Amino acid sequence: MNREELINQIKSKRSFLCIGLDADIKKIPTHLLEFEDPIFEFNKQIIDATKDLCVAYKPNIAFYESMGVSGWNSLQKTLDYIPKDIFTIADAKRGDIGNTSNMYARAFFENMNFDSVTVAPYMGSDSVTPFLEFKDKWAIVLALTSNKGGLDFQKTEDKNGKQLFEQVLETSKQWGTDENMMYVVGATRAEQLSEIREIIPNHFLLVPGVGAQGGNVQDVAKYGMNADCGLLVNSSRGIIYAGIGTDFAEKAKVEAQKLQQEMAVILAEAGIK
Amino acid sequence: MNREELINQIKSKRSFLCIGLDADIKKIPTHLLEFEDPIFEFNKQIIDATKDLCVAYKPNIAFYESMGVSGWNSLQKTLDYIPKDIFTIADAKRGDIGNTSNMYARAFFENMNFDSVTVAPYMGSDSVTPFLEFKDKWAIVLALTSNKGGLDFQKTEDKNGKQLFEQVLETSKQWGTDENMMYVVGATRAEQLSEIREIIPNHFLLVPGVGAQGGNVQDVAKYGMNADCGLLVNSSRGIIYAGIGTDFAEKAKVEAQKLQQEMAVILAEAGIK
Question: What is the pLDDT of residue B189?
């Protein structure tokens, strides 16, 4: 999916919501365990209930990988079930030397047809650029993450007072364009978004950490939104595990709707039509 | 596998060689394509030919993941085929927020029974510590990598002149012990190994980059060896693709033998018996 298609989707759905498909066999409603593929059935019902409210789905690859071959099958079926006009993110945090990153890119872009993959920047340019060589596909590079450990190294200042995540933004933005790169910035670090926008005014940001991790949409929009919206705000557990009964998908829809309505107001106030 | 067992293996085999199983369907000898599972057949013959010469095997997970479900099956069969007294490394470069890293740890340690996984440190403590909670399993954390992009961020100096990889070593060594953590240090950066040994005198180092990437065993041993050896030196392409005919495994054995003999001399000179 290209940038224009993504922006058009945001404008027509009045939403910049991404839903994290972190399907965990230990957490999904127990009545689903009777299905042949409980994980896929869970995702299918979540997608049916929320597809008009969000613009992206983000399966967390670890949850599927931890189930072995059956997990990869559930993932493939889920991906095939997501409507083609919705952006898909393989949240895989991959990254290795060039020939190996190229293999990961082929795994997610060719074998599975994801629109994007999250990529860790520690190994530098040749770990990221292989993901940029596929038409209408995206690398979403970790900049400032929402977890506690995100503070261990990402905010270390260099001799000029520049923090590591700022160096990552400044260096890596030269490897691609705002048509094939996005960045991960945690919602729990919303106050940093204005600084980040000075370095990358146009790139889309994938913002996890809303809901269960404590961030909120207003702050993210206040500091991080640009003229094209430029945001994909993710919620996972707050939506998909809103209910644990047979009505779990309905409950998920209610939570997704709350976020979508909040986003519709924000988009209107920002004059994004 | 615990540290003592690994050291005993090094002493008895007179080797600290790790062989990278980067099996690529486009590079393996074409006569193998007639087998039901060419990737497994390739690995099986490589293992048969080299298992007395190396102490560890390191499948590069990207190569299997890029083949989808059939790749994961080949990987599982390969892992089951490796003799139980040889150390196994899932070269996966994983790392995410705590609950997600836990899923990756379960994938590699429980579902697949690897001894260790390589982990990227960018997301900090909670991205690494879930890998440390399994008995006799190891996290191998990226410190200074052998690729060109390794220079983009890893050698950035902070206000006190400390480079990022040094910060990673100093901070992360507090998360675990030399019984459950190792570090990746590229052979192409051998001159840095003495500095690294000042920070982590006892930890094992996984050293890729010998052979195809240009590093050499003597330099690695000179600057990086400790009283327990403390090194796993990896060669992938230089061994497994030494030949492309029906005698590929024999050619691989010759290359592995050259490195093993070099290592035997080094171990003897260092008085490691």
Answer: 78
The single residue listed with the structure tokens 């993941």 is B65
B46: Cβ–Cβ under 8 A, 6 or more apart, which residues? B19, B21, B239, B240, B249, B252
Return d(Cα B47, Cα B53) in angstroms, integer. Answer: 10
pLDDT at residue number B213: 67
Tokens 């995702």, residue located:
A43
Instruction: Please check whether residue B46 is in contact with residue B234, taking contact to mean a CB–CB distance below 8 angstroms.
Output: no
Q: In this structure, are strands A181-185 and A138-144 parallel, antiparallel, or unpaired?
A: parallel
**A187: DSSP letter:** G
Q: Which of A76, A93, A164 sits opposite B96 (nearest CB)?
A: A93
Segment A16-37 mean pLDDT: 97
Assign domain B3-269 one CATH number from 3.20.20.140, 3.40.50.720, 1.10.4160.10, 3.20.20.70: 3.20.20.70
How confident is the model over A153-180, as a mean pLDDT?
96
In tens, the pLDDT along B209-265 reads: 887 667 799 999 999 999 999 999 999 999 999 999 999 999 999 999 999 999 999
Of A11, A60, A118, give the one whose Cα is nearest residue A240: A60
Q: Which residue of B has its CA nearest to A171?
A: B152
> What percentage of chain B reaches a pLDDT higher than 90?
93
Which tens digits make up the pLDDT trace of B91-102? 999 999 999 999
What global pTM score does this model have?
0.97
- A88/A5 Cα distance (integer angstroms): 13
**Which of A153, A167, A213 would best serve as a mutation to test chain B binding (most B beta carbons within 10 A)?**
A153
| CB pair distance less than 8 Å for A106 and B66 | yes
Alpha carbon distance A75, A91 (integer Å): 12
Rounded CA-CA distance B71/B6 in Å is 28
Catalytic residue among B11, B77, B93, B222: B93
Which of B72, B146, B157 is facing A158, going by the closest CB pair? B157
Domain map of chain A by residue range? 3-269
- The token pair at B16 is 């600290």
**Which chain B residues have a beta carbon less than 8 Å from that of A101?**
62
The alpha-helical segments, DSSP class H, found in chain B are 3-13, 38-50, 61-65, 69-81, 98-105, 125-128, 150-153, 164-172, 193-199, 217-224, 237-240, 248-269
The three-point CA angle A58-A80-A244 to 5° equals: 55
CB-based contacts of A185, cutoff 8 Å, min separation 6 = A143, A144, A192, A193, A196, A205, A206, A207, A224
Nearest to B124 among A73, A98, A153 (CB): A153
